[in-house]
């Protein structure tokens, strides 16, 4: 155990927002542990990022059972970081996890069944060393399990005290509406809905975002920087050591197309005029919508996280800026979602 002590005045450095119609506030920027916190990553760097986040008012840490690699290792590392550095601070944190994607071998390790979700949350609690999660999500609608089975399991998880709140992630609109209604009737409403959303992926604007607002669910966006495409990292090609340069199942080199790079360059000019980096502006753009509760950022270093937090210093857009951004995105809509 080291001598880390959280910074005083840390909450003064963050802005918070109530999550949907609940009494729970989340920071506008949350930290996701999807990448860079697994067993293959530098544990000291991971711990430093968690400390820096907490020191700057990030109280929400987003996990899933399969985050790593190896699957489960992000939860295990996070649990170790908590034990070694945050004794006595659990009640100042919102810790979320999820289950539903492939996690272990065999027919029970990767869907949205009651069998999978109940086993998964117990495993996740053991890995993190927690008594409960603040938020537990169904990570996906798997296309097979009846939605009522999955949602009843989430409701039971709250009633058993294994989670305080529940949420859904990446549910299609029809299944999401069913989930919202079933949760509400059970008296365990959906606290939050998690979806991919960025300037390069705006699919949720059509149905999922207004649907969540209709049912009083908060909304949190993951991949707001489009896996790094909405940063200055790829403006001049694919640098060595970047995510697209590595063998990855996420951002591929082929996805860094000339068209997307050109969009990013034009957006970067607007960001420069605003006195921001492209990443900062991209985060502010996602947060411009009043229905948005928070954005989940990933980070590979403290410096990268610090840059993302600078977005909070300039969240407002003029009508002219929003119109210019819209024109740029519309001009290339055949190349972006």
UniProtKB/TrEMBL annotation:
InterPro entries per the UniProt record, alphabetical: K_chnl_volt-dep_bsu_KCNAB-rel (IPR005399), NAD(P)_OxRdtase_dom_sf (IPR036812), NADP_OxRdtase_dom (IPR023210)
Membrane spanning residue stretches: none
Residue ranges occupied by any NADP-dependent oxidoreductase domain in the UniProt entry: 29-329
GO MF annotations, alphabetized: oxidoreductase activity
Keyword terms, alphabetized: NADP, Oxidoreductase
UniProt-listed Gene3D superfamilies: NADP-dependent oxidoreductase domain (3.20.20.100)
One Pfam short name: Aldo_ket_red
GO biological process: methylglyoxal catabolic process
Family (UniProt): Belongs to the shaker potassium channel beta subunit family.
Protein name per the record: Aldo/keto reductase
